[in-house]
Amino acid sequence: MSGRVRIVDVASLAGVSTATVSRALSAPETVGRATRDRVMEAVRATGYRVNGAARDLRQQRARSLLILAPNLANTFFSRIFSAIQEEASAAGLAVQISDSRIGREKLVSLGYDGRADGIVLLDGAIDPDVVNGWRLPMIQLCEWNEAYRAPRIGIDNAAAARMAVEHLADLCHRSVLHVSGPDGNVLAVTRREGFSDGVAARGIAGTTLAGDFTLEAGACAARRWAELRPRPTGVFCASDECALGFISECAALGFGVPDDVSVVGFDDIDFAHRFLPALTTIRQPREALGRAAAKALVNLLGLAQVADPGDPAIAPTIVVRSSTAPPPTDDSRVATITLD
Amino acid sequence: MSGRVRIVDVASLAGVSTATVSRALSAPETVGRATRDRVMEAVRATGYRVNGAARDLRQQRARSLLILAPNLANTFFSRIFSAIQEEASAAGLAVQISDSRIGREKLVSLGYDGRADGIVLLDGAIDPDVVNGWRLPMIQLCEWNEAYRAPRIGIDNAAAARMAVEHLADLCHRSVLHVSGPDGNVLAVTRREGFSDGVAARGIAGTTLAGDFTLEAGACAARRWAELRPRPTGVFCASDECALGFISECAALGFGVPDDVSVVGFDDIDFAHRFLPALTTIRQPREALGRAAAKALVNLLGLAQVADPGDPAIAPTIVVRSSTAPPPTDDSRVATITLD
Description:
The structure is a homodimer.
Chain A: H1 7-14, H2 18-26, H3 33-46, H4 52-59, E1 64-69, H5 78-90, E2 94-99, H6 104-110, E3 118-121, H7 128-133, E4 138-141, E5 152-153, H8 157-170, E6 175-180, H9 186-202, E7 205-210, H10 215-227, E8 234-237, H11 240-253, E9 262-267, E10 280-283, H12 286-301, E11 317-319, H13 330-339
Parallel strand pairs in A: 1-2, 1-3, 3-4, 4-5, 6-7, 6-8, 8-9, 9-10
Antiparallel strand pairs in A: 10-11
Helix pairs in contact in A: 1-2, 1-3, 2-3, 5-12, 8-9, 10-11
């Protein structure tokens, strides 16, 4: 029966206008509670369902944002998705998600299939021809690509990496290692540049190992670090996952953090403050980033006048915890043993 | 210009039929590479975009699944979202996500707004009147509610909790603590029942503290555990986050895991095997769960004949790592000191 019921049937049963039925379903907060209850009762009794496609055809929009991310299984994105969904929902928009590894053909069609009004793009490694071909309003978030024709929101990754080096240098580390992200990734490149600038500015020794932001890349880097002579006493990992993998593997190899080596992460994921030791890291304000991107996109779509999301470069901060300390010295070790 | 271009213009420029243009955009893998390239070039040259709403109106469907989760920021869901999206994409469906805490009115309208063809429901605590009012094909995943009229996919949570107790009992723990999930939650209730059955079956002492699955609930439980006399020597937490918070706070209080207390988690999140100590835990096969739910929903929607996703109760397993060991005894401690 539900396919045959029209809005006028619901309105007549509820004793209200069709406009009220429409408002009660699409913007329930604009209708009084008693009326809303009456309408919903009539909707249930009749089995009415909005023909979303017909309404969208009239309005010529999908009422939906698409979030495109390089790996949906990466837990870094959870808080970003949550913040975007909250802002989108407030603007009456649904949120669609897609992994960007769905293949070139499917990627191309994302911009032409009419399912999304705009895109929050978390991947800077998609072919610019594909991205610029979409002709939809877009915001680049966290990652970026100079060739994409879309505004960017994100932290200053080079400045954040310099902060990590500054912290290690302030603790008197003279030789530091950077475990970077993968070669083609814009975040990896920018953080590596910040690391290089930082060690040059402080006149200390800097080495880089290529990783890929994962736990296992951190563990692998720890095994390579253990073989270095002399071993750098401070390590800056390009992600918290990498840092936690590094520390975990250090423990397996018999090295203590921060007694034998200090480790700084990047992101401040939820586990960072509960790891053993609690991780010193660069904090990316993920919720603020998600909110800013959603607001900027809603603005671009002209769907709501929302407050300006502020400076697109949201400030990173360093959170100092227990994984960093002054470097070990032979003197200090002898002293400890003697005093015990 | 893009609003005025019709599919026939693209077809004529590319020298193909309108049906070929349509296939090249909606199912690119069904069209040969050379033809596809010609069509996409014509699409770009003309600025053509599919009118998704018009097509959906003809087909009377949204071509979209909705995933409804109790908290999008919970990293437990990342792998589930990723697996659902992969299966949905293969079936030509978009994936919409929503937090279920958007308020009753917005929740009600999710089932009537025509944006989704079906729902994967990860929340068992929504009012059954709302859920059953939706009249959309639905699959309950992980959490469930007996009152929802929808098939369920998930692990046997009681059996999994009994496994955790068995493991501790096998290690000779005689007094064990369960840090449960929140009172109203069906997973919390079922795991607590499994814990109680397990301790009764093994004739050991069991105590329960109420938590809420979070890191901080685990830390709080550790402070309360430290005050118990005698202290249970084994702890089973209802989630890995809770277990990691418990272990982290134990360290802050001066207790070692597993030397002073053994800890078992639940889920096997990505960090579990890299925590210090590596966490013994119940593994939920999240990717398999997500895939099974997506396949079952695609079947319900009649969009594709996919292989039966198999038994809806996907088997949990226990993964034994370093956070569990035999309980400390005064004897063993004396022996250790003597032998050193």
